[in-house]
Fold this sequence. Notes:
The protein is of the alpha+beta class.
Amino acid sequence: MTSSPSSIARLGQSLTGEVIAPGDDAYELARRVWNARYSDRRPAIIVRPASGADVAASIRFARYSELEIAVRSGAHSNSGHSTTDGGLVIDMSAMRGVTVDPSARVARVNGGALLGELDVAAQAHGLVCPVGVIGHTGVAGLTLGGGIGRLQRNFGLTIDNLIAVELVTADGRKVRASATEEPELFWGMRGAGHNFGVATAFEFGLHPFDGILHRGVQIYPASQAHEVWSMVRDAAPRLADAVSMGMVIGRGVPAADYPAAVAGRPIVIVGYSHSGASDAVERDTAPLRAGPKPVFASEKGAEYLEVQTANDLAMGWGHRSIIESAYADDLRPATIDALVELAARAPDGATFSATVHGGAIARVADDAMAYTGRNAGFDLSADSDWDDAGQDELNVGWVREVMATVAPDLTLGRYLNGLCEYGPEQTRQIYGDAKLPRLAALKRAWDPDNVFRRNHNIAT
């Protein structure tokens, strides 16, 4: 069954929010998503609900009309799940807004809010919630997949700070899930939440934070990659929680941005952020200066809000992007060698990174929620950004080759927000065999007809 102009008109009349269909003046702009690789998708209907009741009505309409549902908050889905061909998009962008109770240290965040809204609202009271690194990312999508960023070693994953989530389920019910209300659903929402409904609001616990990040960067020629990795690997378990740190292997491009000794060549970068007291920075980051001498090094303090939006323009809408992520405890010497070779022929904008886990992330039991992999030492990722569709095969192929190279080093779990490819095998890798039966039971209880399938889908 498909929707007719008359049925779309009736849907529009029944909602407080907006309904956009092909041919409407707003349609071409409304169907855009952040990742231009999915810019060819043409939904049959785009709904911008203004309330939970609008969300419920949209779900009922889609089910009656047999339309696939895609849900978007910031439209940043790396795998294109925030749009659909010929289906119905529930675009939450009209349901933005964040309110903060500073005495309780709690933020209430509407389902269409962006990270930048939460950052600004919390910092107005000297508080923070650990979120992602691009201000125009949607809070909902980031949270339901876990939530990794700059402050997580200090304050935990975004889902570790989630107090409650309100959602509309496949049968149109409005449900609140927390540790005491539908606790089993709450377990599943924290890491697999895209499978169980449309999130309309969140409550997060907040942490005191003075808003200053001390940031450092050290650049090395790729000939020192083994020594640098040894430094990073050995430092990781000893790092203070306040230190967020990662190592990047790539090329020094554009050449004008790098020292002449490494410009245009394979390089290794160690970058870190310190979210603690300024008088502890030198002591806490000393393990990151225990290796070879870099060709360039800098350190400076910066306003957290400025850092959080520093890459918003560079990572703006309209570029083509791929990212694939996985977890590991170490990288074999042969892997390091292969990554350096891959860096030598990496497309412009393509990099490999290994970011330290641990700290507060690892102090939550891995079975406490659906998210899997918090015991891993490192979050690995290969990614690339480009503009020319003719370069798709080059960039996608490079990322896949990198992930094949690190495959022998991988441990349990994959970060679903950092995955472009999806299917049953990817879902199994994300959650592991031990959690899939529990997730399947939740799916049967809350979405037996698999209404919410534009995601890393849980099979029933």
